[in-house]
Amino acid sequence: MAITHRLQLLTMFAGPVERDAAPHFGYADDYLGAFGLAVSPWPYRQRPANTSYQALLKAKSVIDHHDEQGAVMTIAKWARHCYRDRLASDVVVVVCRLMRDVGGATFSKGKLGLDFSLVLFDPVRAEAYKPTLAHELGHAAGLADNTVDPTNLMYGSNSATGAGLRVAEADRIRMAYFARAA
Ligand SMILES: [Zn+2]
What we know:
Elements: E1 5-13, H1 16-19, H2 22-33, E2 37-42, H3 50-59, E3 62-63, H4 68-83, E4 91-95, E5 97-98, E6 104-107, E7 118-121, H5 132-140, H6 167-174, E8 179-181
Parallel strand pairs: 1-2, 1-4, 3-5, 4-7
Antiparallel strand pairs: 1-8, 6-7
The structure holds zinc ion (ZN).
């Protein structure tokens, strides 16, 4: 399918292991490409994100995403400080190790008073479930977990292998604030 929209990602990496997460951006591209969507990470693929990388290392090496008032708000603060001019149009993807047994966690725009969506993505845990980043980007666009259809990308289980999206769901991602017509 021809690419109709690009999803603008602002990427932050917590360390060298996380900086090797390149294949996962490829997987996200593969899953979303079936719906005319492509990921467009920045500054990843252009230059190392040293500023955010050092800031994150100082925060924590492993992030507890349930600590919403702690780690998550600290990351949000840094993102706002470093990338203020991009936050209105990008979704922030923080590549980091997570303390709990999940490959990713997403705080949608509006949640916790955030004025942008924040995705935490663990490339090591996500190794077992390749659609993870694409799934989290669906949450960032405002989609909820699908609880009934294991073939759906938004099915809320790490054991699912779903790649499907309903037309309305793909449309919702296309209309996300971080989506741009290709
Ligand atoms: Zn989910």
